[in-house]
Amino acid sequence: MSHLMEIRDLKITFGGLDALSGLNFHVDEGEIVSVIGPNGAGKTTFFNAITGLVDPTEGDILFDGESILGLDPHQVTGLGIARTFQNVRLFPNMTVLENIMVAQHCRTSQLVLGALLQTSAFKKEEREIEERAKEVLAFFGSRLVGYRYDQPAFVLSYANRRRLEVARAMATQPRLMLLDEPVAGMNPMETAELTALIGRLRSEWGFTIVMIEHDMRVVRDVSDRVVVLDHGVPIAQGSYDEVSTNPDVVEAYLGRPAEDQA
Amino acid sequence: MTATIERKSARQVSKVDRFLTFIRIFLVSLIVIGVLAFIAQQVAPDNPFARWRNPDAVGLTGDQFKGLLMSGLSQGAMYGLIALGYSMVYGVLGFINFAHGEVFMAGAMTGFIASDKFSANGLWESNFLLSLVIIIVLAIMVSTLTAVLMERVAYRPLRESPRLIPLITSIGVSFFIQNAVMGVFGPSTKSYPQLPQWLSKQRSILTFEIAGTKLLVLLVAAMSMAGLWYLVERTRTGKAMRAVAEDKEIAALMGINVNRTIVTTFAVGGAMAGIAGILWGLLFRSVTHMTGFLPGIKAFTAAVVGGIGNLPGAMIGGISLGSAESIAPLVILEPLGVPGVSQLKDAVAFTVLVLVLLFKPSGLFGEQLSAEDRA
Amino acid sequence: MSATMTSSSAPSSRSGYRAPVTDQDWRNVGKWGGLCTLALVLVSLIGMPVGLDRRILIHPVLSLGYLSLLWIPLVLGFVVSRHVELEGVESPEPGGRDLLAGALTGLLGGFGMAVFIVALDTFNLRDPLVNWSPQLLELLNYGRGLGFGVVAWIAACSVLGLLGSSIHVIPAGVRRVVSYGAFGLLGIAVLEGAIADLSEGFGLQSLTDSIYANRGGVTVVWSIVLVVIIGVVSMLTRGRFKAAKANYGELQGPERKRASMILFLLVALLTIILPLFLGTIMNELLANVGLFLLLALGLNIVVGLAGILDLGYVAFFAVGGYTTAVLTSPDSPFFAPEMHFAITLVIVVVFAGLVGLIIGAPVIRMRGDYLAIVTLGFGEIIRLLFMSDWLKPYFGGAQGITNVPGVDLGFVTIKGTDPRSVFYLVLVFCALAIYISWRLQASRLGRAWMAIREDEKVAEAMGINTVNAKLLAFVVGAVLASFSGAILVAKVGSVFPNSFMILVSIIILVVVIVGGMGNIAGVLVGSFVLIGVLGGPRQPGLLHEFQSFKLLIYGALLVFMMLQRPEGLVPSARRSQELHQEEFLQDVWLKGEEREGEEHEEELHAAEASGAEGSGA
Prior knowledge:
The complex is a heterotrimer. Chain A has ten helices and ten strands. By secondary structure, chain A is an alpha/beta fold. In chain A, strand 7 (about 175-180), helix 7 and strand 8 (about 210) form a beta-alpha-beta unit. In chain A, helix 3 (about 95-105) packs across helix 5. The longest helix of chain A is centred in the middle third of the chain and has 19 residues, at about 120-140. Chain B is mainly alpha-helical. Chain B has 15 helices and four strands. Chain B is globular. The relative contact order of chain B is 0.17. Chain C is mainly alpha-helical. Chain C has helices at about 5, 10-15, 25-45, 50, 65-80, 95-120, 135-140, 145-170, 170-190, 190-200, 205-210, 220-235, 240-250, 255-275, 280-305, 315-330, 340-365, 370-385, 390-395, 420-440, 445-455, 455-460, 465-490, 500-515, 520-535, 550-565, 575-580, 580-615, and strands at about 55-60, 60-65, 220, 405-410, 415. In chain C, the strands form two sheets. Chain C has a three-stranded mixed β-sheet with strand order 2-1-3. Chain C is globular, with a radius of gyration of 29 Å. Classes of the chains: A alpha/beta, B mainly alpha, C mainly alpha. Chains B and C meet through helix 1, helix 4, helix 7, helix 13 and helix 15 of B and helix 3, helix 17, helix 18, helix 24 and helix 26 of C.
């Protein structure tokens, strides 16, 4: 049985520093896998490598059985891998609706002629784009609908921006979603809400999800599996309970007890 | 809601990359053929290969070649001095000061006005060295003032803006200064007075024949470069400049007065350009309000060739560009049968610019960009 | 406010408290006064007063030459007493202090000017300052001798400074009347050529003959009359225009469509009918404006929509022109097929597209400022090639190609000697360009361009092939420029390499930016105001006296707009919001407070529900 995404012996070196080394990892369709680890462990670099923003030094990344090394970021998205950014990077001066509409670019095809001649194919596609955008936004309840559609993204509150970021990734119609710290900076109410939504992303929309997170409650509540990275090396994999009691993992986060240090 | 996804073929070498490789190969072959034909003309003039593209090819004598080289070097030294200003400002603020060429022109103009007056009242003839020193000082003052004013009025308010906005503003500043100078001083060509014989006569150094003026240019450029090196590497001000170029915010946190350092950067760059202005005036003896335009762009090319933000690189880039500009038309283009090569001298500089930015934008010695500018 | 403050007579003297930012600062006055002197002297030395003196605005009192000096203390007086309005901070009432500040600023300027006049009389600095002349002295003295000049300038500048600052002080109604009246009058004076021409076409010659004096300029009597009329009209229509605009904004759906349609038809009708009533010179001017408008619309797509700063845009202009010349002129050196313009146009499109691809493909991946300079380089290389002796057998070298025929449409031949026909041809293409810009902006491609402009890396991550999208913008811009080149060459009848200097690219850039980047209406306004009034790179505008100074003004205008109003004269709502995010945010926050209240209620309810869910998991 082939995995949806498979990482083989991934190694990324930045001028003498191994950001990632010896990473072996896979995700099957429909899973939710969390990637955790202390800061600087290489988690975001990992995402950057998958999406084509960074070239690995060694190793291979397979999606649906085929290597996606060396592809441009937009090609990777076209294949069905979407991501959110750790420091929310929306298009600030575009409206909420436009942010979602533009994310559907790789799933649509009309170009210059269609726009100029206003062909029925063009108009149909525009309508569909708008409808799909509203569908995606409706996923978040009443937060991003109605009068919000035409508000420029920079007026949104922090929590709404994070939601819009996720919505944008959804709109690219991916099979695999890479969420980079989706609840960072949210208060407990918002965190709980988004955690439930992540679950629904899998159950209602069928996405496979790989998530980087620091908030262990979210990791515990929603993941099928957890991978722990420390200094670019995977040090544990398994269910949340297995991993959270693993002494190596505890040491990576908290250090060794003083009496154990020689 | 998973839509069907078309499988796009992986790892397609894009057509653009193929096109670029083709251009690379084409250009390299052109250069190689041209140089080979040139060598053939020198060595075996009757060889059919030498005559192939250009039947009237005469080839260059050793002296002619050396003469071209000397011209190229001295012109390149001036480009280098101007390039320092571009490099420093880019390193510190991250944008191209399009109006830097006008700072250079301001120095040249000041030199003209001063030398004209000295010529009228006889000081130029009686005590040339004193006049020279005075006009250099004046030119430095004026260009520095121009550069500092530019920064204060047009660039400082735009510190936080996206990079293109100061660039566009600097285009406006360049335009304004060019035409203001034309308005105030008139559009006619201004000529520097005659240089004393003892300076301008040909001298022999090693086996090279070089006009005294060109030698002066090279000497002054070298001295300025040395002074700049000392300033940047050995003084506190220089250290502050380097720190601000690395990371403005952290430098501020370290107690460096960022605004003052930026002003100093503009001032030093302006001073270098002012010196270049005087040298240009002495060498070519004519100045107009448009004198800054072409050398400005060429100096920017030189800065990029050397690696923007990199000061020794800027000087080396300048000298290389000057030499290339001088030699390439006759060594590469003429053997290829291109008529009227001297017209295309400027095209050489622009072509170098295009080529460097296309194929090696970080330049020969690598860019020194601040943390936020590393794209 | 605490009790201690109210018990003192003057808060500032008692507690040493100085209102932040908003009170008058006398050092400020010194600074602006000095600037006033500097500006006045610089303008004099550049030669504007003497050069522009021929153009009389109000006969016999005010010439453009004097205006070029007198606006300075007026505007600076206005600036000096400008106060920053801060929310929640009480700014002092504009009043005597401000008038004094304005007057002092003017006084300092006038004093400087007086010193300058005395120097002008005493020394001779003609070499190197070419405009240091007796004519300048005469002009500045108003022909009445040194003593008069000194006193007059000190007095005039002080008064003007005072007037400038009084704009803040006078009540809104008066301000409205005065400003509309003044600008209206200025407009009528400046547009004298066009208005006289138009009225001739309508047979109203006698009216304009009485308004305008023989030697040019509006007569004093008529000036007063016009100011009054315009002032009254502005009072009567106070608020109406704004209300109308608000109403238009409120319209939705089919009603809006109808209103837009009507508006559009009106404008179209106007532009079609207008040339019929204008004479040759005016039509020539309009045709010129149209050609540059076409170029500006193309550059607008490249710079305004896709965010690519192309400084070598003139290269496509050249390609269009030369292709047309080579294909249509019998004197084309190498290859003279003498095709018809229509077929040539098709080939021009193909060629321009190709050149756009060839230049665009390699440069599109560079970062913005490098891209600007590289395209500049390409533009120059192409011009040098067209001018070279090497390619002379194909393109005619510095002498270019002459004898290019006009456009033969069967029932009419469009050529330079009939500017009205040229204008109509240009109009057709401009309409096409406007249509293209409009449709593309509101399409999938337009959104992709917007995203690229916002954050290119993220746009790529969202699946947009940024290289292709930018290249498309580049090519569309190239094609539009080439259209303009083709028409220009057919109009002028020849092509020369020196018509395609970098200057052209830069002027079009100024037009796009000053008008309003990314915004069709802005580009229209920019073209008409700049090219129409000041003139193009080599062509004079309505105020042909500005020939020698227009580049200076373009440069100053570009700097000024970038510093003060980067969104341009006619900003698109989006661009304005982009560049003034802070203010917009504040507005939204203030307005949204009510909404946020309701939303907060919803959030609380939702959170209670999911909170229960979460803790149970």
